[in-house]
Amino acid sequence: xxxxxxxxxxxxxxxxxxxxxxxxxxxxxxxxxxxxxxxxxxxxxxxxxxxxxxxxxxxxxxxxxxxxxxxxxxxxxxxxxxxxxxxxxxxxxxxxxxxxxxxxxxxxxxxxxxxxxxxxxxxxxxxxxxxxxxxxxxxxxxxxxxxxxxxxxxxxxxxxxxxxxxxxxxxxxxxxxxxxxxxxxxxxxxxxxxxxxxxxxxxxxxxxxxxxxxxxxxxxxxxxxxxxxxxxxxxxxxxxxxxxxxxxxxxxxxxxxxxxxxxxxxxxxxxxxxxxxxxxxxxxxxxxxxxxxxxxxxxxxxxxxxxxxxxxxxxxxxxxxxxxxxxxxxxxxxxxxxxxxxxxxxxxxxxxxxxxxxxxxxxxxxxxxxxxxxxxxxxxxxxxxxxxxxxxxxxxxxxxxxxxxxxxxxxxxxxxxxxxxxxxxxxxxxxxxxxx
Length: 436
Ligand SMILES: Cc1ncc(COP(=O)(O)O)c(C=O)c1O
What we know:
The protein is an alpha/beta fold. It has a domain at 41-273: Aspartate Aminotransferase, domain 2. The protein contains 14 helices and 13 strands. It has helices spanning 41-53, 60-73, 84-94, 112-119, 164-174, 225-232, 262-272, 275-293, 321-324, 330-343, 360-363, 390-398, 412-426, 429-433, and strands at residues 77-81, 102-106, 123-127, 149-155, 177-181, 189-190, 193-194, 201-205, 218-222, 299-300, 308-309, 315-319, 399-402. The protein has a seven-stranded mixed β-sheet with strand order 1-9-8-5-4-2-3, sandwiched between helices. It has a three-stranded antiparallel β-sheet with strand order 7-6-11, with no helix packed on it. A three-stranded antiparallel β-sheet has the order 10-12-13. Strand 6 (189-190) and strand 7 (193-194) form a beta hairpin. Helix 2 (60-73) packs parallel to helix 7 (262-272), helix 3 packs across helix 6 (225-232) and helix 8 (275-293) packs parallel to helix 13. The two termini are 24 Å apart. The protein binds pyridoxal-5'-phosphate. Pyridoxal-5'-phosphate binds at residues 83-85, 109-110, 112-113, 155, 181, 183-184, 205, 207, 218. Pyridoxal-5'-phosphate (PLP) is lined by residues 83-85, 109-110, 112-113, 155, 181, 183-184, 205, 207, 218.
């Protein structure tokens, strides 16, 4: 067996040709990859100070986080809440999307981008994605608009901004609200402008895997004080008091409980001080992967169109199943390649294996029971047949993605090893296929 050489300075690592699944050594040694997020003394100090401060529910750290994130992102108003999903639901309420209203959502995203519509009795209407960007295809939006359409959820997937210029132009022309789902894309920008500053309001997540990480959490952002008040109605048991109300503990409308804990906000504040550095590391790791994988036959690498600042929250690679001769059994082949890569120690996975409209909640109309909200007399027809979303389907079947290898404190040595794993597997496909 050839001896492993580590030639990072001169060029890519070269490895023995025998894949781990055939008894060879792993490309990524155990223990090399470190977990996300790195925890610093500042994190510890701020969390302990919150604990000692005695206000563990929505408290001073929540209020400070709102100001600090608003300053960092360029928003007028921020309300910290307990998940990105909660923030999305608040966006629906803020935009006065109501019973039977239709909301346009990309067919490939995290389910919350669509289920937040169901939470507010609205009907998600899906639109296919663009193959190159993996974001909603603006050219397909117009055809999905009906007299019931109220808003577009513009998801900035995997760290890349959606085409906000095209989306805003359609929305202005057709009188629609624009909700940005920036849950994966803190710091992503288009022509120097950060996501979350384009639409009427936006949602960010701070759950553990996110670039801004506090275990769980969300941020509802808007520049419009009226939308802030409207979004807030869900936030605290519907206790949005009318100005002359004096009754305490009185619910004025339908509400949820979306407040965040001060302890987690303290962690988010500490992490926010390092967010720019973490994003820079993420981008550097992505650049190293791209450099090492460019030209490897059978891979379609992620990229950003001119003018877009991609944070590479998730570095997603598509296998070119046409070139590999596996278009007919793409999903099975992808799963074999994935197993071979994982055996090499590369921390890759399938992020979403289905277009959202193919998921059971939409297939079975399985939300509030008895077919609601689709059966509501105010709702129109919704067609979720997956044939309408061929790009989302192909993407679902052909991709693998990764997050931890991109994240601090992992640096170039991890990117080099993960790239070596991809090259090793793609250059020794015979060893993958004989295991069918
Ligand atoms: C695109 C997208 N939207 C919404 C969410 C929901 O965020 P959370 O898990 O904080 O509710 C996520 C994350 O998981 C996401 O990736």
